[in-house]
Amino acid sequence: MTLESITKTLSLKMITVDQNLSHEITGAYVSDLLSDVMANAKEGDLWVTLQGHPNIVAVATLKDLSGIVLVNNRQPEEETVRKANEEGIPIFSTDKPAFEVAGELYMLIKEK
Amino acid sequence: MRIFRADLHIHTCLSPCGELEMSPKAIVNEAVSKGIELIAICDHNSAENVTAVMEASHQTSVTVLPGIEVTSKEEVHISGLFNHPDDASSMQLLVYNHLDGKNDETAFGLQVVVDKDGTVMDYNDKLLIGATNLSLENIVQAIHDRRGLAIASHIDREGFGILGQLGFIPADLELDALEVSSKVTLNETQTIFKEYRNYPFLRSSDAHRLSEIGRGRTPLMMAAVSFEELKMVLKGEQGRTICYEEQGI
């Protein structure tokens, strides 16, 4: 399933500019410890977190993640959005908690 | 100039996780008995006990710096050390304006405000264990606006340490020093954290009980014990320096 269809199905709000949405998403990773994401997330994963610090863009770039979903209506800092647009990392927000986002993603990606 | 022992991260009974035995005089006496001449009081998100400990240190061999350990919205702990208690109070005001919630004493512990003799003056009812909604960058800037030193707490700890929470230290973050716990020696910081060797390292106890005071400490080469001298140490000015090799001190 592409990132674009996932964002539509989950009604994710796009925060960054419209780019890099055609990736096929085959996995996701949920964590708020960036050191853990650096150690354990897999290339192409969609990352679900509540951290909005600019470092999330660097970590996503480093790990070649497909995008970042901020849960619980968390908003990224301005600098985060600026860097994400520069690096081509899509960032989305949702008012759902991480558990629900992870559950819905699991149904979409893994249950196919 | 000579070497002074410093332990720049000590909690009092005000921190919910701090033992009640962490009263001003007991902290100062413990530091005196361990030959520590410079300490800093850094309670979680509050500086309400710093003046009491400073007063308790009068006419002893210990100098007390006012400080506060702020929890950022990323759940990173950053300590601000100040020259004057008014600067710590001003930082505290900013923190209180960005900190929600009430303490649950059963769940987190008592938050006791005391005078220099350890007499209970008040119980702080804010959720000091919680996180502010201030970003790391805001906190460092606010500390500097108050002429303070911004130190990333216990970077060797995964929880609440900057490296654990954020993966790496943002290059543009103007930290004055990085702190490690007693689990790492000052010498080891130079290899374990070699990519951050341009920062000065401090080793502190993060003491929550008396016996822990001084378990992590830093030997500082200075002309006297003062905030200004510490600032010179961190900048490496005029021969002031951190003695990374002095394991025994």
Task: Describe the fold and architecture.
In chain A, strand 4, helix 4 (78-87) and strand 5 form a beta-alpha-beta unit. The N and C termini of chain A lie close together (9 Å). Chain A is an alpha/beta fold and 112 residues long. In chain A, helix 3 (55-62) runs parallel beside helix 4. The mean pLDDT of chain A is 95. Chain A has helices at 3-9, 34-40, 55-62, 78-87, 98-109; strands spanning 13-14, 28-30, 46-49, 67-70, 91-93. Chain A is globular. Chain A has a single domain (3-109), classed as 3-Layer(aba) Sandwich (Udp-n-acetylmuramoylalanyl-d-glutamate--2,6- Diaminopimelate Ligase, Chain: A, domain 1). Chain A has a five-stranded mixed sheet with strand order 1-5-4-3-2, with helices on both faces. In chain B, helix 1 packs across helix 2 (50-56). Chain B is built from eight helices and eleven strands. In chain B, the strands form two sheets. A nine-stranded mixed sheet of chain B has the order 9-8-7-4-3-2-1-10-11, with helices on both faces. By secondary structure, chain B is an alpha/beta fold. Helix content of chain B is 26%, strand content 22%. The model of chain B has no long low-confidence stretch (mean pLDDT 96).
Question: Would you summarize the structure shown here?
Answer:
The complex is a heterodimer of chains A (about 110) and B (about 250). Chain A is α/β, with parallel strands linked by helices.
CATH architecture of chain A: 3-Layer(aba) Sandwich
CATH superfamily of chain B: Metal-dependent hydrolases
Q: Name the CATH superfamily assignment of chain A.
A: HprK N-terminal domain-like
Shape of chain B: globular
* Beta strand count of chain B: 11
Work out the largest interface and the residue count of each chain. Answer: A-B, 13 and 12 residues
Shape of chain A: globular
Q: Indicate the CATH class of chain B.
A: Alpha Beta
Please state the average pLDDT score of chain B.
96
Structural class of chain B: alpha/beta
Oligomer designation: heterodimer
Distance between the termini of chain B: 16 Å
Record the strand order, biggest sheet of chain B: 9-8-7-4-3-2-1-10-11
Number of contiguous helices of chain A: 5
CATH topology term of chain B: TIM Barrel
The overall pLDDT average of chain A reads 95
Give the strand content of chain B: 15-25%
Low-confidence residue ranges of chain B: none
